[in-house]
Amino acid sequence: MAFIDADKLSYEIFSFLESKFLFTPSTTASPAISSGAVGRIRVLSIDGGDRPSDVLLAAAALDRLEATLRLHTGEPCARVADLFDVAAGSGAGGVLAAMLFTRGHDGRPLFSAADALRLLVAESRRRRGRGFACSRGGGLFRGVFRRPGGFFRRVFGDATLRDAVKPILIPCYDLATAAPFLFSRADAVEADGYDFRTWEVCAATCADTTAVEMRSMDGRTRVAAVGGGVVMANPTAAAITHVLHNKQEFPLATGLEDLLVVSLGAAPREPVPTGAAELLRIASDGVADMVDQAVAMAFGHGSANNYTRIQVNFALSIY
């Protein structure tokens, strides 16, 4: 997909967000950036698409959102992390969430959406120039980034989950326990055994055929991770459950009516020959769609301003 096309698509995504969700009168009663000003918890969820275009489209849309946030608030340094209270991302979506919500040396988010987009575009072009495959299993985030000195390590350095500026959730599948594993800032704050280096978390959620062997900061918890998209391509339900059960950080969230959720889906796909990889992709997409359906049903018919699911093919749904 040409980037000019991605730019057009991201503009349409952003326009939808602006007009239907983020800057409606019901959610902007105060010029304050914090969603606490309107009394509802804002949740951002980014699907784990397996191609570069998936995460680039999400990053481009959030870049536009961030620019308008600055305009509306008069805060020239406002970031996406100032608008949302919790972020969840799977696969490449988890990498983007980590980039936007990890704390930098100045205490502010490590990346603006614009900076994250530029870096991801540059890395995608560099890898294409070197002949790396970008077709599946984490796309532009495959095995080379898991090596010491690779992309993730350069981006996040020594940061850990505790260094997130807001609650963040990133899934993987743990081969050691044969169960999904959800990396969480809340768990990391409570116990060293659940705090992991952020660059390893990103490698874990993007892992393809080779598991990422990792240990917690205290060495007590071992995870043999493969990609988050295998079990949780759409992490929206996990994010909602986390908010409703995390009374320490969200004591006033008692039900779905207390949430504002935006879920960014992956890009449309071209038909490919049926094989093991394609069947896995179909299963992953099916799980993502089922999560969307379940969440929409949970919110019910009278909550058009509480949940927005955006698919990049513009089969847009508002619930």
Q: What does this entry look like structurally?
A:
- This is Patatin.
- This protein starts with a helix and ends with a strand.
- The chain contains 11 helices and 9 strands.
- Strands 1, 2, 3, 4, 5, 6, 7, 8 and 9 form a 9-stranded mixed sheet that branches.
- Helix content is 41%, strand content 14%.
- The N terminus and C terminus are likely disordered.
- 49% of the residues are buried.
> Mean pLDDT score, rounded?
77
C-alpha-based Rg, rounded: 18 Å
Helix content: 40-55%
What order do the helices and strands follow?
HEHHEHHHEEHHEEHHEHEE
Name the assembly state. single chain
Helix/strand-derived class? alpha/beta
What is the percentage of strand-forming residues?
5-15%
Contiguous helical run count: 11
Largest sheet: 9 strands, mixed
Total number of β-strand segments?
9
Gap from first CA to last CA? 30 Å
| Low-pLDDT runs | 1-6, 24-37, 131-139, 314-319
Specify the overall morphology: globular
Please specify the SSE layout and strand pairing.
Layout: H1 3-22, E1 41-46, H2 52-73, H3 80-83, E2 86-89, H4 92-101, H5 113-129, H6 151-156, E3 168-174, E4 179-184, H7 185-190, H8 198-205, E5 212-215, E6 222-226, H9 229-232, H10 236-245, E7 259-264, H11 276-299, E8 307-310, E9 317-318
Parallel strand pairs: 1-2, 1-7, 2-3, 7-8
Antiparallel strand pairs: 3-4, 3-6, 5-6, 8-9
